[in-house]
Every structure is written in C-alpha cells, then in structure tokens.
What does this fold into?
Amino acid sequence: MPSLGSSSLTIVAVIAAIAVVSLVFALVLRRQVLAADDGTPRMQEIALAVQEGASAYLNRMFRTLVLFAGAVFILLFLLPGDTGIKVGRSIFFLFGAGFSAAIGYLGMWLAVRANVRVAAAAQHPDGRTEGARIAFRTGGVVGMSVVGLGLLGATSVVLIYREQAPAVLEGFGFGAALLAMFMRVGGGIFTKAADVGADLVGKVEKGIPEDDARNPATIADNVGDNVGDCAGMAADLFESYAVTLVAALILGKVAFGEQGLVFPLIITSIGAVTAALGVTLTKVRGNESGLTAIYRGFYLSALAGAILSAVAAFTYLPSTFAGLRGLSPELAEHTGDPRVVSTLAVAIGIVLAGVILWLTGYFTGTTSKPTLHVARTSLTGPATVVLSGIGVGFESAVYTAGIIAAAICAVFLVSGGSITLSLFLIALAGCGLLTTVGVIVAMDTFGPVSDNAQGIAEMSGDIDAAGAQVLTDLDAVGNTTKAITKGIAIATAVLAATALFGSYTDAVGQAVASLGDALDTSGLALAMVSYQVISPITLV
It folds into this structure.
C-alpha cells in the first residue's frame, strides 16, 4: 500500500480543522443556552437537586470505569503485532473511551441546566418557540460535540499513522464502544428503576401526580432521564458514529486504496456542516407543533447532506476504478464509476435515516393511528394496554428490520456483485446516515430536557396553565424524538456490524460460515440467546 499523498494529507488536515470548528460552534450554542433565564428560586432549588444527583451517579460510575479501562489498555498492548501499532491502538483506545465519556458527561451537565431554563421560558409570551429553541440547541451542543470529537479522533489517527491508520483506529472504535455500553446500560437501568419506583410510590400507593413535590422519588426520576436518555444515549450515538467511521476507513483502504481512506472522512465532515445547518434552522413557527419544526430541520439538513456528498464524490473520486491509487486487485477490472456507486451508497444511507424517522414518528406520534389505538385500549383495563402496546412495538420492529434489510440489498445491487466493494459501500451508507447524526443527537437530548422542564415546573408550582400546556406539548414531542433516535442508532449499528463482520470473515479467509461446523452452529445459537440473558438481568 503506497503512502498517503500530500494532497490527501492536506484534505485530512482540513477535515480536522472542520472538527475543531464544530467544537467551537458547540461552545457558541452552549453559551446561548446558559444565557437564558434560569427561572424562579424554587425552580432553581429543584434543578440543583437534579444536578447533584446526576453528577453523583456519573462520578461514581467513572471512578469504576477508569480502573476497567486501564486494564483493557494493558491487555491491548499485550496483543501480538508491531510495537508502534500496539502503542497507538492502546493510546487511542483511551482517547475513544475518554471522548465517549466526555460526550456523555457534557450532555448530562448541560441538560440538567437547560431544563430549568425551558421551564422558565414556557412562561413567556412566545414560550413555545423559546422553550423548543433552548431544548433543541442544548441537544445541538451535544450533537456538534459528537461530530467534532469523532472526526478529530479519526483524522488524528490518519495524520499520525497514515496508511497504517486502520489498525490503530480499531482501538479508537473499541474504546468508544466499551464506555458507551456501560453508560447506556447503567444509565438505562437507573432511569427505569427510578421511573418505576417514583410511580409505585406516587401513583399506586399515595394516589398523587407523577411530578408531585411531595414524592422525593421524583428527583431520582428526573435524574434518571438525564443519565439514561441523555448521557447514556449520547455516548451510544457517539459509539455508533465512531464504529461506523472506523469500519468505513478500514474497508475503504481495502477497496479504494488511498482515496478510500479519505473519502469517508469527507462525507462525515459534510455531516458537521449539515448538523450546524439543521440545528440553526430548527425553529417553531407560531403555533405549529415542535415535531413539525424538528422534522423540517432534519429533512433540510439531510437534503443538503445528499447534495454536498454527491458534489464531493464527483470532485474527489476518479471516473474509473483504474484511476484509484492502491485499490484492491479484485476491483481493478471493475467497469463501474466509483463516483456514482459512492454517491448512491451515501444517498441510500440518508434515505434510510429519513424513512426510519418517518416510520418511528408514525408509530409513536401523539396523533398517529397506532398510538390512538393503544390509548383506546386503556378503556378496557391495564392488561389490554400492555398487550396492545407490545403488539404495536413488535409490528414497528418488523417494518424497521425490513427497511434496513432493503437498504443493505440495495447497496449490494449498486456494487455490481463485488463483495469487497459491497462491504465498503455498506459502511459508506452508514457514513451517509451519519451526516444526520448531529440533528439526531439534538433530537434525542430534546426529550429528557423537555421532560425535566415539565417536572420542575410542576414541582415548583411557579407556572400558569398556559405555560404548563406548553411544557406538556414539548414533553410529548420529546417522547417521540427519543424513540426516533433509538431507531436510527440501531440502523447505524446494523450497517457497521454488517461491514465489520464482512471484514472479519475476509481477514480470516472464511467468506461464509459453514452451518455444518459444530462450532459455528454453537456460536450462532449462543448469539441468538445472548439478549435473553442480558434482558432479564437488566429488568431484575
């Protein structure tokens, strides 16, 4: 494999600069959020209790994870291989873990300060617009940080290790994934334990409202919203971002050579631009639903991402595969146009994000048919609500899985039958989906911020009926946006896993696992039941 040329290194350096600008933009948004009115003394008192609880949880978890990360750092260094690569892989494992932790902590820290500002904004004449703006820009800070830190880590590895970058990037992706797993699972357990506990004490035993100040568990409930749905989900989305980008760079080097190591970075840097655009353009107009404004910002940023990605492909890539530097021998005779297939792969990823957004919104929206159906079943008792809710959830999963499968099949068709090319294009489709990740993270953080704002307002009692209705509407929108982000995060993970599994089987020289092999069959069976082991442990 030839060394990266000076022009490619210049492009990577420019992308690193874009990553830094993304972080600066996040600081600007943070200042705007913190400049808003922070409410009445009673609101501030309640918000402070939530802040203390969230910080205590994350600080305790990080003290434990530091020891675990240190042990993994040593184990990675003990793996066989070149010393320089082992050192780089171990060091960037810590960077990946540190960035994931920083994203989670930043998301939580700002969310527990933005919630009281959203509650205060609901009292203003333009409370709907102002409250939605604060909540969404809080998420924008986290979204721009995800994009900025992900790009900064990947470009740093490429600039330092150049053509050997894929081997080191494995450590960066592993670090991000490891921390995200603990933050997502741990935060999720805390969230549901606090939520159910507060409901049992308040609604079941005492018959008081969910966010009643007389129930001390409501503080734990609000803390749980932040450490689970904000810190945990932000780290999870950063992990999806990092792992998908790592998969694209590893497979890109194999398929497209030098250009394959740079082009995924170009696509994800476009995501930084479109994220800033989406966050800036998302604004509630008059009495329209907050969800309408968020959808508008998402689709505008997605459209911009598709156009800019096509421009980048036709500008940077050659018109024939023979023009690629250091490409795979398998593709040397490919008659297609790398610009066209790359553009189509990215477009498939962007369309996949848009379809999942629409589909999840349909199944979880406050005025949609499935939601109203579940609501009607409450007339006949709690059992029918549970059954209908589970049924609707299963139905939505079928459609989502079908859409993801269709996207993967479409990428295979675009590749023209080449396994090497198709695996890279799947990862590239994941990068296309990631051009929307800044807005997606903003949508996710919007949920817990608006939920907390409603709880703080209700517990304080310092809000009128109009303001309470604004917060109720924002909370309903937040419940939908949280569901949407989970669907897109899963889709990204599936694309990355498909690409990485293909890379793994290629590396070990086994393109297709034999179901006649006892070890393969046993491994498949264990993998199928692994979630049935984790789920009951989490629930109990």
